[in-house]
Amino acid sequence: MMNSFFGRLMIDIEKKYLSNEDIELLKNKNIGGVILFSRNFESRSQIKDLVSSIKKIKNNLLVAVDQEGGRVQRFSHDFTKIPSMQMISGYVSAHNDESLVKDTGWLISSELLSTGIDINFAPVLDVDKSTSSIIGDRSFSNNSDEVIRFASEYIDGMHEAGMKSTGKHFPGHGGIFADSHIELPIDNRNLEELMDNDIKPFNDLSKKLDAIMCAHILFKNISNEIPSFSEFWIKEILKNRLNYKGLVISDDLSMKGAGLESCSVKALKSIKAGCDMALICNEREDVKRTLDVFEDNCIEQSENILKMKADAYVSWEQLSNDDRAIKTRGRLESIINS
User: Fold this and answer.
1) What integer is the mean pLDDT of 9-33?
2) Would the pLDDT of 298 be above 90?
3) pLDDT at 99 over 80
4) Known catalytic residues?
5) Minimal CA–CA distance to 168: which of 254, 85, 249, 75?
6) Angle at CA 214, nearest 5°, toward 89 and 298?
7) How many domains does the chain contain in total?
8) Residue 273 forms part of a structural domain
9) What span, in angstroms and rounded, lies between the C-alpha atoms of 154 and 98?
């Protein structure tokens, strides 16, 4: 019988296979997901086997990846090489090829689904072109209306394939240069400035998005907490003002932008602020401490997380011979080679 309650913590693993320690950790009721990186990838068949071995541990585990395209594409080789979203949106605008964004969302999702992956943390909803050192061409555009237009099509493609969407990074990472992986970015804009620009994609797509990932940015003129730790951002703005009903996920709490406290403290803060799931990568000892902290604080499992589980299976062999997939791969290759 399917256990519909998921742990509230998503973690990483170190290698291309599960270690004995990984297996024991993943059995813990407070762990509900695994995020994979390039270090976990060797080939399509290997990643399919790895995902299968993860899901055999228990049926209430999600497997996620960042397969955006451009400089953020964790799986390569057998998988289609994807241009950045800004390259794709530029091509669409120049060639009036309106279906390409939807087809790209469908293709990326279908390839991942064929290996058993549940979640691709996409699309990027940040509004940027060259301001941010970490976003840049990961964004569809520096125009919020264009971000909405293209992201909406991309999400439609994901949903058509059978994969849920995750908009990131709320309330917007595109307005500052600093990289939240290595420092805490500070954005001095006020709330109405953000509502008129960076938050617009999250607002307009709130009914279409299945999950939203918070940014590690301090908007010091709005709140004294970063969004993952802020009831103001999650409950007052996202859920009340934007009327958003989906899941809320923290970005990786080991990033410097999330502060210098231990990840166990940060994970507890994020759950108490309203995050459905907290993400910790590259900090295995902190993961263990977090499990103890969750237990001590009686953090309950969540049934809402079940909504993110993939609801379709795609055969790689069928996909390889699918006309839509073949044509989409050709169009994407022409963008990369242009």
Assistant:
1) 98
2) yes
3) yes
4) 181, 251
5) 249
6) 150
7) 1
8) yes
9) 11
Tell me the CATH number at 278.
3.20.20.300
**Would you say residue 63 lies in a domain?**
no
Residue 116 has pLDDT above 60, yes or no: yes
Note whether 127 and 194 are within 8 A (CB).
Answer: no
Could you give the CA distance from residue 154 to residue 286 in angstroms, rounded to a whole number?
A: 35
- The parent domain of residue 275 ranges over 83-337
> Token pair for residue 250?
């923290």
Contact 141, 161 (CB under 8 A): no
**Non-local CB neighbours of 98 within 8 Å, separated by 6+ positions:** 92, 153
The answer to whether residues 60 and 26 touch, using CB atoms and an 8 Å cutoff, is no
Radius of gyration in angstroms for the set of CA atoms belonging to the chain, rounded to a whole number: 19
Residues in the chain, total: 338
Provide the token pair at 252: 């990786």
Evaluate if residue 224 carries a pLDDT over 80: yes
**pLDDT category of residue 274 using cuts at 50, 70 and 90:** very high
Q: What angle do CA 275, 35, 41 make, to 5 degrees?
A: 165
Structure tokens at 198: 């960076």
| Number of other residues whose CB lies within 10 A of the CB of residue 313 | 9
Closest CA to 142 of 134, 155, 131: 131
Q: What is the 3-state secondary structure (H, E, C) of 22-83?
A: HHHHHCCCCEEEEEECHHHCCCHHHHHHHHHHHHHHCCCCEEEECEEECCEECCCCCCCCCC
Q: Which uninterrupted H or E stretch holds 279?
A: strand 277-280
Q: At what angle do helices 85-95 and 100-113 cross, to 10 degrees?
A: 140
* Residue position matching structure tokens 């695994």: 34
H/E/C letters for each residue in 158-206? HHHHCCECEEEEECCCCCCCCCCCCCCCECCCCHHHHHCCCCHHHHHCC
